[in-house]
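[job 4471] stage=fold_predict status=RUNNING
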Amino acid sequence: MIRLVCTADNHLGRYYAKMNLKQLAERRARLRQAFARAVDFAIAQRAHLFLQCGDLFDRESPPPAELTFVAQQFQKLRDNHVRIYAISGNHDMPTSADGATPARIYDALRAARVFGKRTEIEFDFVKVEGTTVAIGGIAPDPRLEPRADPLVGVTYSAPQADVTLLLLHCGFESHVPPDFGDAILPKARVAEMADVDYFFLGDIHRTHKAVVERATVLVPGATERMTFGEISERAGFYYGELEGKAALKLAHEALDAQPMRRETIRTTDLPADAPTEFVFERLREWADAEQLMQLRLEGPLAREVYHRLKFFDLWRLGNEINFYFDLDRADVKIASADGDSIAAGEVISVRREIESVADELAAQREGDERALYAEARALVLARLGKEE
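[job 4471] inference complete, writing structure tokens
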């Protein structure tokens, strides 16, 4: 019996522009922990194969700490006689023609077999308890048009094996979001490749399993939820037990992801006299020191209420009572001057807004502090005048 673990989209070393250094370090540690759980599971199950289907790292030049961590995890697998196979993804694919995906380091050290060609499927052959297994892979080709077939024009020699596995990094037909811009593997292509028994696909962060004629397509999804758009997704990886071509077990093993929450407040629900205090109350109700939280404000807002709504104070409180807080106000629309209609996307004078906010802050201070705000106001407006 062949035992395998398949993971993808671990995005180690992921960068979040709005996180402070402490938040970023803790978030990256959680991403590493999720990958380590997949490794520990493979060892506990005495897996023969550990498959990684791309985006092991979030970028082509990950921090040294992430490279070292993966080396340690791969060594644990090798110490327990687990063979490692991997491909790059669209995130850790080098942009230059002479670049190398960071995972290739482990191939050069013979710690893992990393398939690096973009137009030819390479295969490795191993004997697992008397069964010949062909494991193949191909790196994603950044030259492909969005939603193109990733295997069009790709060459390979049909492997002579008892069971054949193929690693890809792409979407799968009928299992991609509407705005998906990477390559998509068509069902017709799966049906055409009669010599491949199992297709393992990275790239999509939503787990999925499909059967196309006699082939099985498995999408492990990500080992952590990366964005607020993935709140409903289940983080994890796939575990399989095969007897030749037959699947005795194919199970998605869920991982506990960091809590995420997204809430929306309509601006029409805000009291005009105390909008900030209203939002403060809601934030305290929803707070969790472990969670990534996003608050979306949307709808029309009278200009005087807009000035009473202290966005910075909301952001500061949100970050104090949550692990991380994002304030999304892209859908707030400022009411026009006559108040009868809403100017969606009305352009607000940056200079006027700076003057208004600075004057309001200065009015709350006395003596030297008030003078300091006045000086800062003058410097910012002077700089703005040069840039205009």
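[job 4471] summary: Residues 340-347 have pLDDT under 50 and may be disordered.
[job 4471] exit 0
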